[in-house]
Design brief:
Blueprint (H helix, E strand, L loop, with lengths): L2 H24 L12 H4 L23 E8 L4 E7 L4 E4 L2 E10 L9 E11 L8 E11 L13 E9 L9 H13 L21 H7 L8
Length: about 220
């Protein structure tokens, strides 16, 4: 290698580094996602009055139960799990979820069912002329195994119940352990329709009860 070639290479390296740094500086910073609860929703008071589906407060006390909700953004097909306790309010972007209660059928009851009383608020415009505002789009019970009984109807977002972790007398597992076990099983691929623990671009729409019902087709009869 000649002396002139070595000199050109020595000059090229710093120049390439400067161009690379310049390109990085020109990229826009990622948007920060809001997590604060809007005053308009926080001022509505505590958890809403919920008619209990069962007269007896049997098993784990309501305040210690753990519900896992699925949240789907239909625009970008991203879904994520939202783990909450009754009485909590959680904001994800321009969606606010309020969990008032969650229930699981007694061990000897059939059919087996899990449900949660949820309120869903979305920041959007009711009409093109209105300003952005928070609107309650759903308030009621959602059921894991009977999603058609109640559906969150919104063009962008879907919310459904994935589990209600609680225990009854004679069951050793605590609600926190049950929720952790279910999450671990899904992460290892043992759970059915296991989503990623964080928002992902997987075909999440198939995990949504509404989308799953739309994609069902009758099986071909055997010849």
């Amino acid at each position: 290698m000649t002396r002139s070639t070595r000199a050109r290479l020595a000059l090229a390296a710093p120049l390439a580094a400067m161009l690379l740094l310049g390109g990085c500086k020109g990229e826009p910073a990622p948007e920060v996602q809001e997590t604060g609860i809007p005053d308009a929703i926080a001022q509505t008071g505590g958890k809403p009055a919920v008619p209990s589906p069962r007269k007896d407060d049997y098993g784990t006390p309501l305040k210690d139960r753990v519900a896992t909700l699925g949240l789907l953004n239909k625009r970008n097909n991203l879904s994520q799990d939202v783990v909450m306790k009754p009485g909590e309010t959680r904001r994800v972007g321009n969606v606010v979820l309020k969990l008032a209660s969650c229930e699981r059928s007694l061990p000897w009851e059939k059919p087996v069912e899990e449900g949660a009383f949820v309120q869903v608020f979305v920041e959007d415009r009711a009409t093109a002329q209105e300003k952005l505002g928070w609107h309650k789009i759903f308030s009621g019970w959602l059921f894991k195994n009977s999603p058609a009984l109640n559906v969150v109807q919104h063009p962008v977002y879907d919310v459904w119940v994935k589990s209600c972790a609680m225990s009854f007398p004679g069951e050793e597992e605590s609600p926190e352990d049950a929720a952790s076990a279910k999450s671990a099983a899904k992460a290892s691929g043992k759970g059915r329709n296991a989503p990623a623990p964080a928002a992902s671009a997987s075909p999440a729409a198939s995990a949504s009860p509404a989308a799953a019902a739309a994609e069902e087709e009758p099986a071909d009869e055997p010849d």
